[in-house]
Design brief:
The complex is a heterotrimer of chains A (101), B (637) and C (317). In chain A, 25% of the residues lie in helices and 19% in strands. Chain A is built from three helices and six strands; from the N terminus they run E-E-E-H-E-E-H-E-H. In chain A, strand 4 (59-61) and strand 5 form a beta hairpin. Chain A is globular, with a radius of gyration of 14 Å. In chain A, 40% of the residues are buried. Chain B folds into four domains: 5-225, 3-Layer(aba) Sandwich (Pyruvate-ferredoxin Oxidoreductase, domain 3); 243-431, Rossmann fold, CATH 3.40.50.970; 438-506, no CATH class; 509-632, Rossmann fold (3-Layer(aba) Sandwich). In chain B, the strands form four sheets. In chain B, strands 6-5-4-1-3-2-16-7 form an eight-stranded mixed β-sheet, sandwiched between helices. Chain B has a seven-stranded mixed β-sheet with strand order 11-8-12-13-15-14-21, sandwiched between helices. Chain C folds into two domains: 22-265, Rossmann fold, CATH 3.40.50.970; 269-309, no CATH class. In chain C, strand 1 (43-47), helix 2 (55-58) and strand 2 (62-65) form a beta-alpha-beta unit. Classes of the chains: A alpha+beta (101), B alpha/beta (637), C alpha/beta (317). Chains B and C meet through helix 1, helix 7, strand 7, helix 9 and strand 8 of B and strand 2, helix 3, helix 5, helix 11 and strand 11 of C. Bound molecules: thiamine diphosphate, iron/sulfur cluster and zinc ion. Thiamine diphosphate binds next to helix 12 of chain B.
Amino acid sequence: MSKVGCLCCLYFKPHIYVSSAGYCSLKGRCVFGDGVVCGEYRDKVIDDLKKVLSDVGWVYCVTCRKTLVDEFELEDHFNSHDVVADVLIDEAVSDEAPSAD
Amino acid sequence: MELNEVSLILGGAQGSGLEASMLILSRALAYGGYGVIADREYYSNITGRHSYIHMNVSATNIPRSLRYPVNLLAAMDSESIFTHFNDVANGGVIIYDRGVDGKRISDVPSMEDALKLRVLKHLQDLNIESDVASILTYLEKERRITRVGVDFTRWLRMLASKFELQPRVLSRYVSGIIVVTTALILGLDLEYVKYGFEAQFGNRKEIVKENLYLMDLIKEDLNQYGGLLQIKKPTINSDKVMLATGNDFVAIGKIVAGVRYQSYYPITPAADESFLLEKFEVIEYDGDVIGPIIVMQTEDEIAAITSAMGASLTGSRSSTATSGPGFDLMVEGLSWAGMNEVPIVITYYQRGGPSTGQPTRGSQSDLFNAAFSAHGEFARVVLSSGDHLEAFYDTVNAFNIAERYQVPVIHLLDKFLANSLATVPVPDLSKVTIDRGFTSNGGKDYKRFDLNHKISPRAFLGTLNTVMWYSGDEHDEYGHIVEDPENRISMYSKRIEKLQIIESEVPEEIKLRLYGEGSPDYLIVGWGSVKGVALDALDELRKAGYRGMYLDMKMLYPFPKKEFLKVISGVDPSRVIAVEHSYNVSISDLISMSTNVKIVKKVAKFTGRPMVLNEFVEAIIKLLTSKEEYKVLRYGA
Amino acid sequence: MVPEVNSYKTDLWVDWCPGCGNFGILTAVTKALEELKLEPSRTVIVSGIGCSGKIAHFVNVNGVHTLHGRAIPFAMGIKLANPDLTVIVHGGDGDLLSIGGAHFVALGRRNLDVVVVMHDNGVYGLTKGQASPTLQLGVKTKSLAKTNIQQPVNPILLALASGYTFVARGYALDVNHLKEIFKKAITHRGAAFVDVLQPCVTFNDVLTADYYRKRIHKLEDEGGWDPLVKDIDDRRSKLFKAIEKGLEWDSKIYTGIFYLDNSVMAFEERLSERLSRYPLRNPSNSKIVADNSRPIIGSDNFEKIFKDFVVYVRKGG
Ligand SMILES: Cc1ncc(C[n+]2csc(CCOP(=O)(O)OP(=O)(O)O)c2C)c(N)n1
Ligand code: SF4
Ligand SMILES: [Zn+2]
């Protein structure tokens, strides 16, 4: 992991665009991911993400802005990138999505 | 020095709140009395790719065109800086999130390789590193560009300490930060911004409240930058304006015109028009309802046009809206409308082709498709509109012409006009009339295609004691199939000779409009959305000593030869320049085939981005002062 | 109202080949209209292109002879804009199931109150006998150079899958039986489909009158046949039964009503939930112009109606 902070915590779900902010599934509210962590911090290890991968079907690399769907991919990104279990999609995405093609 | 006019870019990832920022800021500016035009540039993508809003704000008039370089760049992410830093004027301002200082181009996965390479090369030439901080430092030193680094996270955290924030709406605060910071730098009264928030989030009181709190924080923190690009107090004299896109104005025009059936198959940049119509399906007014307007999402564009024709036969004003690919599918239907003299309006928003092309980018390359597609010979009308307000009036004109002459009318617009947001005077409804053309109450021996009239009076399907037939095959006066050669001559001529009636009866102001000074030493000829940039160019060129005029060809088919020739007669042919967002500048071909007048000087742009004033003026001067005949414009990311 | 016109046939000379099944369909439909006393001016036949498409000219009610494959969407526009009209689509099997397949499916999904009559002759008649989408695999009709290597689509099953709430099959040369089916289809509220087996004497030497005579069985002759869906729970079993009968072809070909479901909302009803006063107030009869050629939206109400787009500039400053 390149950083410390909520982004490395298992309970944290970063916002799609403001990745320093997001949702803490433990506290059930909005938190900010950079800087200090709280006492409940739980370091995210690769096995946690593998479990999510097998339960949910995907995890997300914040660095590459890429959805990862298999274990090899996960292993590739995990060490040097910020990989998270879930992303928080802002309401603006569906609101503002232009029709295209 | 206070500015009369400010150009700016708001950049960020598609779906990250740019639209909201544009709307809040535009509402604030409109409320403050400023004129605004905002072009939206976006990818064919739902979220994640780089999008930007290119705005021009004026204190003195309603702006008609866009400008580069811009005075201000508000960058929601690093990609916006890499993409647009070169578009910022000397002495300008860049607002950005300090959190991206260390980002390098190579860290931005969403950027296209070609652009990355181009920017890298440019940075190399300037001998600077490819990270945000280095670029900003360079701009500060070499080009007096102020960097206003703001700390999004810090403000968000402060906000969160005061309010229970919903993480799903964080973009609403990021939009707030962008808008408030921009407003501060322009030295706007923050009351305007408050109005903007209220208008945007009206029914969501808590978001308004939180943004106002944020506004106070920002005001305090960024005090030093207040009025850095001070815009003048507005002097546009109007107590109200409309703030809407071209799509909106067409939809509103259709409602006023009395459309009762609109069909569509979703496609960019047309679909927004139908969404808006759907909101107005039934208008409750004065204890009564206006409408209903049936808005049908059909299974394809073929069903869109054919069902609209079916509805039209019952006497309902009917229309459909599409862009190139959908129009291509409609063409057989168009031919049926020609054969059966069906009034129908097709709103055709051009985008970049061929094929899927650049579906979210602008273009004017479908002029010939609109004017000449479909088999067989028949009368149709193609109208274009130069700006938002014209689009409104022309929409009504389109229905009136369709019904009066019983022809399909293609209202040819484009993505630039459709998607740009602008402050526009409220239309003058006293100028609007409804003409339903020649109608009949039918009766026992009713003949739908009665040859005693050049335009046979129309009875509608369902008229009591009246039966009628329609057929795509050649038909007699009753509408029954006949292949008799004499009947063929009568019916064929009747259908096609309507073109002459149209040419002689349609008022001149619907056909073309001429702007600028008399006895000009050059003439620009164009149509549709190039009007704004052309008119602004006339003003700029006047300052440089050129007396010019702009001829806006509004009715493209049938081509108004007589009126065109009258305009062109006094002008030296080598001083006429045709302009269009296409490669071929087809308007010049249309003119030469219709009138034999050859226009050899052309300005073309086919990047999918709109022509902006500076490049346009340069090109005109070049064409007027050299032997060059063809200039291709390429500005804009 | 009783129509003034006695005959529902126009006096045009009918130019189908002698012995063509279309004559039976024409007679059945005009008789049905007559017996239902449908007023010609309030009735519209919308047809496609093909031999079958010409029928619009032979019936003395409004006729809209459209484009190849597009009769259904034309009919939809007519019906939605003026829901008072009785709208009947006639098309060939190529027209409705090949080039117009998307519209055929869409109409079922909408359950719009329109009748679709398919002239099912297994060939493209008017283009001289090519295989149509209902022609069986491995069959070689007269003007095919080789046997057909495409599978047929089963119109009954396709209609059921698409959501038609009245699905029937008739035989062109059993005019009285066909007429009764038409009458029920017309009075049904919702999308009705009638597959009419129509011998094409000129190009289809396989699906001949003789072929059909040997195989046709009427569903109503099967003991206890009842296609009517009683309630939502009954729907599944009625559908299965209809599919089972619809699958029969080689030795037995069923005619009659396969499926009838009155429990599904017609599209007009779905629309009326969104549009107050529809269908009473509809596109064809709602006002759009005030007395003085002005639109009904004028200077007095424009800003109120479009208030979301109007910005009142702040005072003073
Ligand atoms: C003739 C034509 N009409 C409309 C469009 C616009 N268009 C592009 S994608 C699309 C629909 C996409 O839906 P779907 O096929 O379900 O694909 P998804 O995006 O869900 O994967 C439409 C209508 C087009 N490209 N061409
Ligand atoms: S289907 Fe399209 S819109 Fe839906 S999640 Fe995938 S990319 Fe996004
Ligand atoms: Zn990665």
